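My current task is to audit a protein record that another person submitted. Thanks in advance; the entry in question is below:
***
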Amino acid sequence: MKTLAFILLAGVAVSPAELPTITEVVRGHSERVTYRGVKAITLIPAADAPGDSDMLALLAGADFKDGTIELQVAGAPRTGAPADSRGFVGLSFRTGPHGEWNEVFYLRPTNGRADDQLRRNHAVQYVSEPEFPWQRLRKENPGVYESYADMEAGAWITMRIEVSGATARLYLNGSSQPCLVVNDLKHGDQAGKIALWAHVQTDAYFGPVTVSRR
């Protein structure tokens, strides 16, 4: 198994930007491909995966609690996906064994440039499985755990997630301002694995990953 090298810089453990090593894929398998000129990992759903479920590719390495994760993602609805499929793709952090629980920031790329303003407002989402799926969060706290950000389906999008205690911030495409801030991560500040995340109806790709642990 390949082991990531770490560099200590001012008390921060930093992994190099490279395709990660995957230890387990929940409800699917992974393949290494080249997508739009970038070496990438794609997730393929298992034949028996439920139609409305997600895939998780857990990454090798120490558990993650506080720090920064940066990677490129691209997502678009798979051919033949239902009309309401949005190309859901993102990252799971502080993930439990076998994906039993997690914190997730994910994108709905087809919403980013929709003509419907309400759809645009649902372009970026936070969820905390299993207790807080998007439906519950939207019903109980409308607009608090999702927001708008410009994005294009199928295009590479850079995600940077900064986590400290019970707070997480999501930045897209090098912006100096977060597009979504969550101040009450539902699993508190417990550590867990990092995992690539995508809906089974999504044609999803993931580029190199950089992790800085504090």
User: Anything to note?
Assistant: The first helix runs from residue 117 to 120. The longest strand covers residues 202-213.
